[in-house]
Amino acid sequence: MGMGEPLLNLDALLPALVVATDRNALGISVRRITISTVGLPAGIRRLARENCQYHLAVSLHAANDELRNRLVPANRGFGIAAILSAADEYFELTGRRVTFEYVLLSGVNDQPQHARQLVELLHGRPALVNLIPYNPSPRAAFRTPSPAVTARFVELLTRGGLNVNIRHRKGDRIGAACGQLRREVPTVGLLGQ
């Protein structure tokens, strides 16, 4: 995670994962590896056909294309329906449930109607929703929802029959939490002027 879109580079990713899981190399269990993607349907289908047993996490962040197009511009090229179809195929061929990552942004995608849309979208699918309250970043306009708003969102999802996990913050005070890793660029000129 955090190193670009892995499904755009499957020709390099898959051999690297073979080495990572080889007991004579790194020996990491396939059950401990997650491929995190923005949700490129062709790449998800290729993983499914190759019967990869890795966890698959799709950064969804919205339950409708209008909002997701704003939050995840790559969505304009394929849309949520194509992602879900590919995720369903991944589950059918591998038996591995898909995790849908959903960063809660205060006032953007954290309202009851958003939770109800997510329930409608994922209901009946063997999926896990990983809710991530936004970790603040000094240059971003987004805000973290209140604990009460987050709790209400979780309640609506669980009442709707979805499996939900809340990612608890770790490292946010030092700028090392989910979504905070970035290079700091000094505000002075390149030559220190």
Can you walk through the features of this model?
- It is a single chain.
- The chain is an alpha/beta fold and 193 residues long.
- The chain has two domains: 1-96, no CATH class; 103-125 and 135-163 and 170-181, no CATH class.
- 35% of the residues lie in helices and 14% in strands.
- Strands 1-2-3-4-5 form a five-stranded parallel β-sheet.
- The protein is globular, with a radius of gyration of 18 Å.
Summarize the structure.
By secondary structure, the chain is of the alpha/beta class.
List the helices and strands and how they pair.
Blueprint lengths: L9 H12 L12 E4 L3 H9 L5 E5 L5 H7 L8 H15 L3 E7 L7 H11 L4 E7 L13 H13 L3 E4 L27
Parallel strand pairs: 1-2, 2-3, 3-4, 4-5
Helix pairs in contact: 2-4, 5-6
Strand order of the largest sheet: 1-2-3-4-5
* Shape estimate: globular
In percent, how much strand structure appears in the residues? 5-15%
Query: What is the distance, rounded to the nearest whole angstrom, between the alpha carbons of the first and last residues?
Result: 36 Å
Number of domains: 2
Please give the share of residues in helix. 25-40%
User: Helix-strand pattern, N to C?
Assistant: HEHEHHEHEHE
The low-confidence runs, each spanning 5 or more residues with pLDDT under 50, are 179-183
Biggest sheet descriptor: 5 strands, parallel
Derived structural class: alpha/beta
Number of E-type strands:
5
Overall average residue pLDDT: 88
Gyration radius from CA atoms, angstroms: 18 Å
How many helical stretches? Answer: 6
Jot down its keywords:
five-stranded parallel sheet; single chain; 2 domains; 193 residues; alpha/beta
